[in-house]
Amino acid sequence: MKEIKSIRDIPLENYIEGGSPTCAGCGPEIGLKLALKVLGKDTVIVNPAGCMTLLCNYPYTPLKVSWIHNAIENAPATAIGIKAALKARKREMNVICYAGDGATYDIGFGSLSFMAMKNEKVIYICYNNEVYGNTGNQWNTATPEHASTTTTPVGEKSRGNNFRQKDMVKIMSDHGVYSATANLAFPIDYIQKLQKAMNNPGMSYIELFGACPTNWYANPAKTIEISKLAVETAFWPLIERENGKLKINYKPEKLMPIHEFLQTQGRFSHMTKKEVQEMQEKIARRWHLLTSEEKKNEY
Ligand code: SF4
């Protein structure tokens, strides 16, 4: 497929039809629909248990590509097996893991780490909605500070989640694989990263901001708006790490205040002005670190 440079270049074919059972405004499903337009029909999706597992309730599935459902911890092991089977049959297909953050950051991390060390040619897309989504909004290590979840509820003594998030893109890059973030409000950047991954002889890791109106207590009609605010405030910087070098793919002229992003979601509605200010300072520090690291690459 030729390089996609504008919205007009995106293929019209759909490999997910209407009638999906996911929630209205589900970011991860839009992300899969867009990815499949680029990956095409010769694609096998390996999906560990998570929200997207709702798509494969045979015979009522909107999917038009092959799909293998896995236990939450072993999608990469299955993907490695599929690669071996395709090789034995001399067949070329895209093998994709489409996994939630619970499977990626926590329960399936051992299996993912091994696949990265093996540098198997698999594209691993983590749709990150920052909680265990389909089991009822529980905390995991992708959950941002202060987010209210059912296991980090706001109460007299709790201000929501008080753990740091893992830097999964950096962790995967340290395994030596191509590693990047993506966001639905920047579809061409997402698609170009997928195309780069398709041409990469080894493993690629792409982490997609997976806006989740249901668990974030947000308006389903505002999925793309919330996604854009995540990038414009640097809550979700668009970056890629390749061969030890960092590139920031989009730099807002001026970062928007984090309050603009937080106010779109009920999970942050308890935050005080002081807590918002502290988060703002942390984001500014991280942005400074990223821009400084990128500058060092240029020397
Ligand atoms: Fe999508 Fe969130 Fe609903 Fe899961 S809970 S299907 S991620 S909107």
Can you characterise this structure?
36% of the residues lie in helices and 14% in strands. The two termini are 34 Å apart. The chain is globular and about 60 Å long. β7 and β8 form a beta hairpin. Strands 2-1-3-4-6-5-7-8 form an eight-stranded mixed beta sheet, sandwiched between helices. The model has no long low-confidence stretch (mean pLDDT 96). α1 packs across α6. It is of the alpha/beta class and 299 residues long.
Strand percentage lies at: 5-15%
Category from helices, strands and their pairing: alpha/beta
Percent range of helical residues = 25-40%
Shape category = globular
Low-confidence residue ranges? none
User: What's the rounded overall pLDDT mean?
Assistant: 96
Characterize the biggest β-sheet. Answer: 8 strands, mixed
Terminal Cα span: 34 Å
Radius of gyration: 19 Å
Count helical runs: 10
Major sheet strand order: 2-1-3-4-6-5-7-8
Q: Name the ligand types.
A: iron/sulfur cluster
Strand count: 8
H/E topology pattern: HEEHEHHEHEHEHHEEHH
Describe how the helices and strands are arranged.
Blueprint (H helix, E strand, L loop, with lengths): L26 H13 L3 E6 L17 E5 L4 H14 L5 E7 H7 L1 H10 L4 E6 L39 H6 L4 E5 L4 H13 L4 E6 L3 H4 L6 H10 L6 E4 L2 E4 L9 H5 L10 H26 L1
Helix pairs in contact: 1-6, 2-4
The structure holds iron/sulfur cluster.
Iron/sulfur cluster binds next to helix 7.
Task: Offer a concise description of the structure.
This protein is an alpha/beta fold. It has ten helices and eight strands.
